[in-house]
Amino acid sequence: MMSGTSVDAIDAALVEFSVQGATLSARVVGFREMSMPDALREELLSVLPGGSGDVERGGPAQWCRLDTDMGQAYARAAVAALKELGPADLVSMHGQTLFHWVEGGVTRGSLQIGNPAWVAEATGLPVVSDLRSADIAAGGQGAPLASTLDALWLRGSQSAALNLGGIANLTLVDGRRVLCGDTGPANCLMDALAMREFGLPHDAEGRIAASGAVDHGALEALIADPYFAQPMPKSTGREYFHLGWLSDRLAGIGPLSPTDLMATVAELTARSVADALARARAEGWAIERLVASGGGTKNPVLMRRLEALSGIQCARSDQLGVPSQAKESVLFALLGWLAVHGLSGTVSGTEGPVTGARATRVLGSLTPATPLNCSPPTLAPPTHAPPTHEPLNVSHMTELAELVIVREDT
Ligand SMILES: Nc1ncnc2c1ncn2[C@@H]1O[C@H](COP(=O)(O)OP(=O)(O)O)[C@@H](O)[C@H]1O
Ligand SMILES: [Mg+2]
C-alpha cells in the first residue's frame, strides 16, 4: 500500500509472488484505491511543507494524531483491499511522508506516518513499514525506491521508466546499468494551482492547461532552477517544489493568467523530464522506450508534450503487466516481500547502490501480528481460497537476478 506526495488516495495492490532459481515472478492479482478522507487530506496538506501550516512548528500532539488517523486510514484501505481482492500473507505499507530531510545534499531522515499497528490489528497480518530508514542509515538517500522494481523488471532492456505522481521519478535501465532520480515536479504544482485558482483537486484531463498558452519567459525562469540541471541520482519533494517556489521563481515576470500558468507548469513537467532524458542520451544511455505510470498519465496535455519534447514514444506500464495506477503499490508489495525474505530492497547498478548508500540493505521494520484464527469480523468470507503454499525457500539467494511480471494474457 502506498500514498504518495499527491495525498489523493491510498493505493493497494495484491501481488502474488513465486520464485524459480534467482527469478522472482509477480502477478498483480488486482488493485484498488481508497480516496484519502477529505479532512485528513486537508490537514496533511496544511502541515506538509508549502502548506498553510508549518511542519517545523506543528506540534507533537498534531503529529501523533495524524499518525493514528493515517494508520487507521491505511487499516481501512487494507481491510477493503483484502475483502475485494482476496487474502494475503503480509501487508507492506509505505505510509505518508511527512518530511524528507535533506541537508547539504545528504539525506538525514525521512518520516512516514501511518502507524502500522492499526493495520496489523485490523487485518491480523504482519506489516512491513518504514522502508526508507535502513538505506538512509547506510548513507543512501532512502530514495528513489522505484529503482528496485524498475531495475529488476526492466533489466537487460534499454528502457526509461517514468512515474508521474506528485513528483516525477525516472529510472534508466540499459543492460545492467541503472540510474534513478526525481526529475522534479510532476503533478504537485499543477494540483496546488488547480486548488488555489479553481478550487479543484487537480486539472482533470489537462483541460485547464489545454485552454491556456505556455509563457516561454516564465518557463525559462522556472527551468533555470539549479535542481533541474543536477545530475541523477537526486531526490526531491514538496519540501522544495511548492507554490512558494513558483512565485519566488516568477518574481519579476509579469502576472500570468491562471490558465497560462497551468499550461506553463504542465510544460515544465514535460520539459524537465525531456531534458533529463536528453542528458542521459548524451551521456551514452540507450533509451528505446519510455514506460510511464502514475496519475499524470491521465493528463493528455502532459503526455503529448512529453512525447513531442523527448521524441520517445510513451508506453503505459499497463502494457507490460503493471497497471499504471498501481505501479507504486506493486513496488511496495515487492519491497515487503524482499524484507521478510531477508533480501536487500535496494539494487546496485554498475557504480554501486542506486540510492548512493554504502551497500544495499534489507529494508523495513516489521510489526508482527497476532494471527486472527478467522477472517476479521468485518470481512466477508474470502472469495478466493486462502493461500496454502509453503513459505518460499530463498536460502539459495543472496540477491534477485530479475523480476518477471506475469501478465494475464500470457
Ligand atoms: N483524470 C485526471 N486528469 C489529470 N490528472 C489526474 C487525473 N487523475 C489523477 N490525476 C493526477 O494524478 C495525481 C495522483 O497521481 P498518483 O500517481 O496517485 O500520485 P502520488 O503517488 O503522488 O499519490 C493527482 O493528484 C492528479 O494530479
Ligand atoms: Mg496517489
Report on this structure.
This protein has 410 residues and is α/β, with parallel strands linked by helices. It folds into two domains: 9-150 and 325-406, Nucleotidyltransferase, domain 5, CATH 3.30.420.40; 156-320, ATPase, nucleotide binding domain (Nucleotidyltransferase, domain 5), CATH 3.30.420. Helices cover 35% and strands 22% of the residues. The chain is built from 13 helices and 15 strands. It has helices spanning 38-47, 60-85, 116-123, 133-137, 146-154, 188-198, 207-211, 216-223, 226-229, 243-249, 258-282, 300-310, 327-340, and strands at 9-20, 23-35, 91-92, 96-103, 106-113, 127-129, 158-164, 167-174, 177-185, 289-293, 314-316, 348-349, 352-353, 365-367, 402-406. The strands form five sheets. It has a five-stranded mixed beta sheet, sandwiched between helices. Strands 1-2-15 form a three-stranded mixed beta sheet, sandwiched between helices. A three-stranded mixed beta sheet has the order 3-6-14, sandwiched between helices. A hairpin with a 2-residue loop joins strand 12 (348-349) and strand 13. Helix 2 (60-85) runs parallel beside helix 3, helix 8 packs across helix 11 (258-282) and helix 11 runs parallel beside helix 12 (300-310). The radius of gyration is 21 Å and the shape is globular. Magnesium ion binds next to strand 1.
